[in-house]
Amino acid sequence: MSFFPDVPKIVFEGRESTNPFAFRHYNPAEIVEGKTMAEHFRFAVAYWHTMRGTGSDPFGPGCAVRPWEDGTDSVPMAQTRVKVAFEFMEKLGVPYYCFHDRDVAPEGKTLSESNANLDAVVKVLAEEQQRTGIKLLWGTANLFSNPRFVHGASTSCNADVFAYGAAQVKKAMEVTKQLGGENYVFWGGREGYTNLYNTDLKRELDHFAKFLHLAVDYKTKIGFDGQFLIEPKPKEPTTHQYDFDAATCAAFLRGYGLIHHFKLNIETNHATLAGHTMMHELEYARVNGLLGSIDANRGDELIGWDTDQFPTNLYLTTQVMLVVLNQPGGLGSGGFNFDAKVRRESFEPVDLFHAHIGSMDCFAHGLKIAAAIRRDGALTDFVKTRYGSWDTGIGAGIEAGKEDFGSLETYMLKKGNADANVSGRQEMLENLVNRYLG
Ligand code: XLS
Ligand code: NI
Ligand code: NI
To answer: What does pTM read for this prediction?
Structure first.
């Protein structure tokens, strides 16, 4: 039985293809900078959006047509849905998926009932992984939807909620390990606050760090060797999310002795909500040794919230790939997870295919453009030359720790003035990048 009877297996047909059910750029076997495209991207489908998104918004209920749904939130329905997901991913040719515990299985009345529900669905996930070879990029726990998490989970004022969250993460980690998950993600959910009048900020931050330390301990205890990832987001649902951006996360992890246990999962729409470009967030993470994985999506330039759209902008994907290619080994155990949802108006199952095909192609195209820019070397040469004053003379002395304020004063008193500056040539470089996009 097929859930997508009208959709063929999506294959690479090349640039000239006009077939909407084919890749024009994503050719999994094609080698770019010594690695196949499949290895560069390790694309993943986000279970919560693709399988559980209904298109609901504050003004109306879901309108997505999903013929396989029977209208219940039952375990048998969840098990059937796994089969739908795997047929979808097989046809699309995506090698990974990501999930929250509560996306894949319904929450029960008690924790033990929820755990049993999860086990019943995980059994089918394992079977489908086995059947298809599709793997788990990362698992995570939903510590934000249930009303018990109204004040947060690890940062809740209610210690029982901290305990509940810990129990839930414990189980989600076990299940992730059981399914061979290569990473485990902590997105802050409701870890943040809206008003300091009712908030003990210091205590909340301490509890947040405590929670993560307990997770690290448990990781060692069960021998889970996947990578822990923190996903920064500046706001939404709370006004002040504690994991604001890459820099805030880096400072928090350093301050609480957690830096060696975590990397970051950088999401495009979270970067832009924080007032950064995605390229900035990726580069900041990279130079701090924290670039672990990517939640690939985009926001809307005209809208100020997390719209989680599928990325189709070549400038964006080119910039992303420029940073990723610059990291030896790329994303390592990470990958590109489409944390993105089709628009409410795109309510047919086939739209799920169009969305993923377009974004995978856009990233593949961006990869080729980024590789061409790097081959040319003009960008890197420009930056190298721009900082040339640091390679010899006084610059080299400062970097080597040979100078102090006194010696620098002596140097400048003798010289009288600094050497003249040279133009940054931003427009010339923007033109250069455009040449490769053309
Ligand atoms: C929400 C986050 C979430 C995480 C996983 O904004 O992007 O979907 O990726 O909890
Ligand atoms: Ni995300
Ligand atoms: Ni998000």
So the answer is: 0.98
